[in-house]
Amino acid sequence: MMQALLGTxxxxxxxxxxxVAGAALARSLREGLxxxxxxxAVVVAVGTELLSLVNGLRPLxxxxxxxxxxxxxxxxxxxxxxxxTRLARRSLGAARSARRVAMGMALAxxxxxGSTLVVSIAAPPNNWDxxxxxxxxxxxxxxxxxxxxxxxxxxxxxxxxxxxxxxILHLVLASGTDRSANLxxxxxxxxxxxxxxxxxxxxxxxxxGQAIAALVVMTTPMALAQAPTTQxxxxxxxxxxxxxxxxxxRPRQQVWADGLxxxxLGAASFMAKPTALxxxxxxxxxxxxxxxxxxxxxxxxxxxxxxxxAVMAGPxxxxxxxxxxxxxxxxxxxxxxxxPGLVPTVENAVRLIGVNVGTPRPGLNGRxxxxxxxxxxxxxxxxxxxxxxxxxxxFDVPFGRSEDxxxxxxxxxxxxxxxxVTLLRRDLRAKAGVYVGLLTAATVTFCVVLTWQPWxxxxxxxxxxxxxxxxxxxxxxxxxxxxxxxxxxxxxAASLPWAINIQVRSLVGSASVLQGDDTAxxxxxxxPLFQPYVTTLAQLRKSGQSRFGLVQxxxxxxxxxxxxQPAGPxxxxxxxxxxxxxxxATAWEDAGFEVVVCTRxxxxxTGWTARDMGAGVTLVSR
Length: 622
Prior knowledge:
With 622 residues, the protein is mainly alpha-helical. Among the domains are: 342-491, no CATH class; 527-621, D-Maltodextrin-Binding Protein, domain 2, CATH 3.40.190.
């Protein structure tokens, strides 16, 4: 318990120290946060790679790394303590003003942050992707002490971009528990709200407008659903917001400072998730502004981008190339549109809107789905176009409070209305017209590049975060005080189901994470697996083996085989799960296995006994 607390505090204190140092350098809390995001990405990406070289992905080396971060950041802050003192005074003055201006919004933000924090700490990782590849890769790295690839039937554990999981790895190693794993996304949830308010300030809004932008982020259903998970779209969103905030700055006399931060954030965005490509239109704005001053300004920036990508992403891309002969991993995953064009883009845009208009009534959702499908067909569009649809999926209008399919209907309406009003009103167009245009271009980029997938709303979360300042601009520019208060109250009220009753991570009811069994909570997303996994692990412990084989399908749950075991002498599971999916059954005995667990159909070799444990789990032993 003490290690969990101290280790978690060590890493979080390191993050806070980076922010304080960034604020001292930037002379601004929120602009300092931009620097902290960039510096944190370097620490996590480069630090993990360096420790991996010496098999140092262990608790003590990771703790030493974050102690060094605190020391260096503290030294920077101490040397600039005068500036920090002045910044603290200004911030306190601003806080007193904000107390009169936006007390209600501040209380709502605290409540939303608090509820998601409680869930983050109380609930173990239990969403589908965490069980399949996010957390298993963390478990493998921790067991190995390095980032070397391993044999697996779930190759997404290897080739998907790993920045978020690197952060989770640091927290898990330092704390000794996976209860800290959800904190990566939760911290990014708070950072996203602050960076959205920074962008609102850059668009000319005062305290009220900045507070509204922050609250829009914190009441976005998908953000609330993802905050207490080990997904990675809030990580992507924070990096995208940080990049946008730099792109909106006026060009400085010396371009190298912004250029260096942009280069680091660009590499970090790739390492977080390629969906960060939506930031490209904002990057083009920054490049155009630099070109107007002098094309030569971009030469050092280009060099910094190359170096940043080589240092931060190079080792990961090299491992992918060695394993799959492609730096981006195997080619069979169709996540990008095969033949981009106007028709595929329109198809994706219509379906993106469609998945955001779901209601709690399944019958109504079915009628909406049929109406959209029939309407698309009548105008020559294919709702299930194989060029633009993830293989094996079909367009439908869902509804739920999970981090995969949660819609953002109210935000969609507000953003569309706010964008139109901003472009129609001359005064608002002068403030945010360019931003609305770039946000539109980012949305088009998203629809041009990515295939439609049932979980597309999760991938679109960075777009939702970028829309918050637009809503704030229109709210301040158009609405009188009382209608604006009604809007704020509506946002908070509409977000409550996601704040307290997220699917599989609820604060209320019989399945509350505050009163549930830790083991059972891990299976809330797939209850039928609970008993077979627990029973199989009990049988494995009776076997007395130090390891067991795993034969898995692409989307099977591997992580419970790690998480539900007591720790061995070195902190690893008492029985090591070893994926032997690619090992012929006839070679199991030669490989030294006495017992194998199959979560997909398998044929035991002669002389082995197979026992059906239920839910597709088979225990095979000699």
